Amino acid sequence: MNAAPLARILLRYIAAAMITYGLAPREGAMLIANDPELADLLAIALGAIIAAAAEGYYALAKRFGWRT
């Protein structure tokens, strides 16, 4: 699965929220939303978070005797 499209979508929503709440000027938020390096970094972070969640769930399952 390629996480880059999901990362770009998330960046666009984050940029829109930043504009809406006045946390960033429109130009700055658009740079964040359209930055390919930031999208790649977010895709890597999403992959790491998903992997950590899966490993954490596995550890909990082992600890509580659930089926693994």
Number of helices: 3
Oligomer: single chain
Rg, rounded, reads 17 Å
Form type: elongated
- Number of E-type strands: 0
* Poorly predicted parts: none
Major pleated sheet: none
Q: How much of the residues is beta strand, in percent? A: under 5%
Distance between the termini: 23 Å
Keywords: Membrane, Transmembrane, Transmembrane helix
3D architecture notes:
There is one protein chain. The chain contains three helices and no strands. It has 68 residues and is mainly α. The chain has one domain (4-64). The longest helix has 29 residues, at 36-64. It is elongated.
Give a short synopsis of this structure:
The chain has about 70 residues and is an all-alpha fold. It contains three helices and no strands.
